[in-house]
Amino acid sequence: MKPVVGATPRVVKPEQDWREQLGPEEYAVLRQAGTERPFTGEYTDTETVGVYECRACGAELFRSTTKFASHCGWPSFYDPADSDAVLLREDRGMGMKRVEVLCASCHSHLGHVFEGEGYDTPTDQRYCINSVALKLVPTDS
């Protein structure tokens, strides 16, 4: 996995507009690369069928068909909805070397992606995403 960040985001707003649109926790995670506490997020254990969108801009990011129970405290997916849905970039914060996951549309922080952890998934990747960064849109069953 080679981290890459694309060019200019498609959705661009002044930070004040993001602050007005998002709640304090949403803003801290999406715009300031924060992390919600483990096992507290709305979507950590949900099995609802649907599409997960970026809470900041509404772009489709993940589908419930790629969500799996990783028991790590955050919703986990093994693949984005589309290869262009997210961007990856190196994150050396907190004394670690990780790969940050960003919404490709608005460049909001979503979480991190890890690989080689031994999960039985088709990609051997775990997109560890903050619930507060997502909005689940259920599909009709």
UniProtKB/TrEMBL annotation:
Reactions performed catalytically: L-methionyl-[protein] + [thioredoxin]-disulfide + H2O = L-methionyl-(R)-S-oxide-[protein] + [thioredoxin]-dithiol
Gene Ontology biological-process entries: protein repair; response to oxidative stress
Highest taxon listed in the record's lineage: Bacteria
Top-rank EC class of the record's enzyme: oxidoreductase
Record domain MsrB: where: 15-139
GO molecular function, one term: peptide-methionine (R)-S-oxide reductase activity
Keyword terms of this UniProt record: Metal-binding, Oxidoreductase, Zinc
Record has Lipid biosynthesis as a keyword: no
Database matches in InterPro entries: Met_Sox_Rdtase_MsrB (IPR028427), Met_Sox_Rdtase_MsrB_dom (IPR002579), Mss4-like_sf (IPR011057)
EC code: 1.8.4.12
Gene Ontology CC: one annotated term: cytoplasm
Cofactor: Zn(2+)
Presence of the UniProt keyword Transferase in the record: no
Pfam families, A to Z: SelR (PF01641)
Name of the molecule in the record: peptide-methionine (R)-S-oxide reductase
Organism: Amycolatopsis cihanbeyliensis
